[in-house]
Each structure stands twice: as C-alpha cells, then as structure tokens.
Design a protein that fits this description.
The chain has a single domain, classed as P-loop containing nucleotide triphosphate hydrolases (Rossmann fold), CATH 3.40.50. 27% of the residues lie in helices and 19% in strands. It has 7 helices and 9 strands; from the N terminus they run H-E-H-E-H-E-H-E-H-H-E-H-E-E-E-E. The chain has a 9-stranded mixed β-sheet, with helices on both faces.
Amino acid sequence: MQNIKKKGRGRPKKVNVQKTNPNIRVKLKKMDDLSFDDALFVPMKTNTIVDGLLSSEGGLMPGTSYIFAGSPGVGKSTVLMDWLAEFQKQGKETLFISGEMGKIDLYKYVERFPKFGSLPTLFLEEYLTNPKEAIENTLKRGFDVVLVDSWAEVTDLVSDQMGWTRKRVESWLLELLGTHNNGKNKAKKYTSFMLIQQMTKQEELAGSNKVKHMTTGYCYIKYEGSDREARFIEFKKNRRGGEDKVYFDLGGGGKVGYNYPEAD
C-alpha cells in the first residue's frame, strides 16, 4: 500500500506586519521658516575640472549622497579614490569603506597609485559577523567625505547578518546616509557619500527606484564606443547642477587625467 504524506495541521505561521500609527502627528514646514549652517553650502574641491561636474558651485557639496555605477574594470574605484585623496589633500576628513578589496589587494593597488596610501580605510573583511555595527560605529566619529565600495557588498553583508530583506537593508542604509548628511555625528560633520553600485545587464543602475529618488544624484562611469578606449563620467541626475560629462584616463605616474568632451 502506497504511503501518502499527510499535510501538517495546526496554526499557520505568523507573518510580521509593520504596525501603523493612525494618530501620527505631521508637521508641515515652509522653507522661509528654516535656516541652515553656512558650512553646508561651501563646496569641497578636487582642484580639477571634476569640480564643475560635481556641482554648479564647483565641487562636492556637503550633506549630499551620490550613486556611481559603471562597466566592470572601467575604473570606478580608481576615479573615486582619486577624488577622495584630493579632498583629503585639501584638509577634509575622509573614509574609504572597502567591501570588495581586502588589505592585500589594496596594498598592491597603492603601488600603482601612491596617493591612496594615506586614506583611512574600514576593511569589511575584518567584520564579516558584525558589518552593521562596524559601519555605524565608524561613521559616528564624523567625516567630511565617505566612499563606499560597494552598495551591493554592504547590502549583502548586512542582509546576511541581520536576516533582513534587501529592501529593509536599503531603507537602513538610506536612513544612515540621511543621519550623517545632517551632521548627526560626534564631529558634527555634514557627511557627503559617494557609493559605488552595480549595473544591470541592460546597463542601468541596479537597485530600486527609491535609491535613485532618495539620493542627490546618480552617475555612470563607462567606456565609450566598441573599442573601449575612451572612458567618461556622466551624471544622469544631479540636484546640485554642474557639467554633464567629463572624460578620463588612467595614465601613468599614478595619476588620473580628466578632459572635457571635444566640441562638435
């Protein structure tokens, strides 16, 4: 006689549902009634033509968050670490959160680009069991500019640690950015974030639309043409204005070169 497996009986599993608060107090605000620290409107400069790309004021503005996506191997990390090193050179407090490169890889990288050797770096490979706390506690110190490589690695690590969905990790990360954009850290720095993100097969920015809408802007770093010789940086959205496109090359001497597009 064939054994037939009976379906289990009992109460269905509980589903965690976010409770709502129908009595929440909402306060509307008028921009005419608000005031901000003047330091929020002083651009941080690389002293290259990139400053015109980052904002109409010329430089990276405090309290902003940008997503950078691009082709594999095009030089996303190199370009953004170059900017970070220049901000540090101008006296800004900087931080590199490395979720992809380990200490040995970065050590060899610095042989090609020596200016990266003085960048304070949080290696997430050292905090695989508690990346969330490592990131939160480090950011509490307060920095002017933070480079995160990458959004995807941070999302995966925190999701594994906390058992959260990607959407929940995304909300946590966006809230964390907003906290430090607004200077809520020990040094009261209006932190700006540069976050590297992956691209889809259609060469679009990976992640939900919430990431696009709740950050200051997003930018592509890509090869141009089938020969893949030219490389460019192009903003698709930038609430702080600025130029649309700059070309770059990873030439010799441990430097990144930047050029404007040639006029037609």
